[in-house]
Automatic annotation (TrEMBL):
Organism whose genome encodes this protein: Sphaerodactylus townsendi
Gene (name only): SH2D4A_2
Name the record gives this protein: SH2 domain-containing protein 4A
């Protein structure tokens, strides 16, 4: 009999399960429950949307703060309707100050200029230049033709720059002369080019001759320097060839005081 009751009880429990399941399904189909579920999902979606917008705003503000300085300096492209801004030229640079030699103070005395190392003096008088030429240059046959013993047609005495330019003013390009400088113990080659008169300093501080600041070729004679540049230009840019010597134009040669 106990077995029968257990079986009946089990059958009764099994009979009541479908009823409970149908009740739960009915709750899920209840309009009130469905509306509550919909509102809950909508609230969750709004929260997620607000959180997403907050993250985007934070990133945007961070980028704006990071590139604040760069955005101000970045070039802005001109639109089709915007006129192009014309930049004004920069102001001219101030002139360079003249280079001054350092001064040294003498004890209990005025300021004196410290003399630098110079290859030749710029305070030489005409008499000292003539003396220098006779003592140092005549033994080296300066101003003479290489083969002959007479004065070269291109050689002149102590001339100023203006006097040399006057002698070459009506000459054709390629005409030249070599003159004793009026300021230093050395020579100047004055050359008439198509664009005007040029002047090249000749270093005569040793026992050779070469252009200052042009090349480093050393010539034992002043005439050798002239002969060399009859075929080789003085500068690669100017292409100066010594073609036509400019001779004396006055009755008395301007180099007489050098050879007397």
């Amino acid at each position: 009999m106990g077995t029968i009751m257990n079986q009946s009880q089990t059958q009764g429990e099994l009979a009541t399960d479908p009823v409970e399941d149908s009740g739960q399904n009915a709750d899920k189909e209840d309009p009130v429950w469905l509306e509550s579920l919909r509102q809950s999902k909508a609230a969750d979606e709004r929260r997620r949307s607000l959180a997403r917008h907050a993250r985007d705003d934070y990133k945007r503000l961070s980028l704006q703060g990071k590139h604040k300085g760069q955005a101000a300096d970045a070039p802005r492209p001109c639109g089709r309707g915007e006129p192009r801004r014309v930049l004004s030229p920069p102001p001219p640079l101030p002139p360079k100050p003249k280079t001054l030699l350092p001064r040294a103070r003498v004890a209990n005395g005025p300021l004196t200029r410290k003399q630098g190392v110079q290859r030749s003096t710029s305070t030489s008088t005409r008499e000292s230049i003539v003396q220098w030429f006779k003592e140092d240059q005549l033994p080296l046959r300066a101003g003479l033709e290489r083969a002959a013993g007479h004065v070269a047609p291109w050689f002149h005495g102590i001339l100023a720059t203006k006097e040399a330019e006057e002698l070459l003013s009506n000459a054709v390009p390629g005409t030249f002369l070599i003159r004793v400088s009026e300021k230093i113990k050395g020579y100047v080659l004055s050359y008439q080019s198509a664009k005007g008169c040029k002047h090249f300093l000749i270093d005569a501080s040793g026992e050779s001759y070469s252009f200052l600041g042009v090349d480093q070729l050393q010539h034992s004679l002043l005439a050798d320097l002239v002969d060399y540049h009859k075929d080789e230009p003085i500068t690669s840019l100017g292409k100066e060839l010594l073609l036509y010597p400019c001779g004396q134009q006055g009755q008395a040669p301007d180099y007489l005081d050098l050879f007397q």
